[in-house]
Design brief:
single chain; mainly alpha; 66% helix
Length: 92
């Protein structure tokens, strides 16, 4: 779909290409572009304040419930719930 990008990538030295390959580059997880994209999208679509509001209503947060409530995939909801539970204090 992005022929010009593929050509540029093919011309790039191998050591510079490493950053594009998940699990093969020497960088921290939060420096990974895929992680950044998932974190941003989940925060935008399922804000921490919204999750807390649901909890305050006495509702149990599960991936399926969050997926239906915020109209996202179950995988996205699972990712967000995992991050929310790990970083609750930082997010609020």
């Amino acid at each position: 779909m992005h022929t010009d990008q593929l050509v540029r990538l093919a011309e790039m030295p191998t050591n510079q290409q490493a950053a594009f390959h998940r699990g093969r580059a020497d960088h921290k997880p939060y420096e990974d572009t895929e992680w950044q994209a998932n974190a941003f999208a989940s925060a935008l679509l399922m804000p921490a304040a919204g999750l807390v509001a649901l909890e305050d209503e006495g509702l149990e947060l599960t991936p399926l419930f969050i997926a239906r409530r915020f109209r996202v995939s179950k995988e996205a909801a699972s990712y967000r719930l995992d991050q929310f539970e790990k970083r609750r204090r930082d997010l609020l």
